[in-house]
Structures are given as C-alpha cells and as structure tokens.
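Journal club prep — side note

Before the paper discussion, L.F. wants everyone to see what a predicted structure for a comparable chain looks like in token form. Sequence:
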Amino acid sequence: MMSEKSTRTPGTVRDNINPQLWKDLDPEIMACDAESHVGNSCVRLLNLFERILANDELESNYRWTFARDALDQCRIWYFG
C-alpha cells in the first residue's frame, strides 16, 4: 500500500486533474494546493472518477450521477 505522502503531488488541484472534464469544479477548489489534505483528496477522487467515466459502456445517467457526486464530495471536503 502506498503511503499518503507518496501520493501527493506539487501544484494546485487544477494542475493535477483534467480541468476540461471537471470544468464545473469551483475555482476555490481548483486553486487549492494539491499537497494539502483536502486538495490531495480531491485530486485522488477526481482522477479515479475520470477513469470510471472513461468507460464507454457506462450509461449516461450513471455518468452524470457519478460526475455530480464527485464534485459534491469535493465541495463538502473544501467548504464543509
């Protein structure tokens, strides 16, 4: 298992995700330090969901729901 420290990357959340895919992510979260606890959690979650959303067999209603839920979770972590 990788340690949390080994999964952290420098830069902002925007630098470590696909900003075109996550265009609805709040600017405050996009600008968050990717090495912070919240920033790192958002980067990891959004990158995981990007891999899930890339599956062509995923139904469109699930695609929309997963994307919405990922954004909502990042907002909960950042804004409380």
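L.F.'s comment for the group: The chain is about 50% helix and 0% strand. Keep this in mind when we get to the figures.
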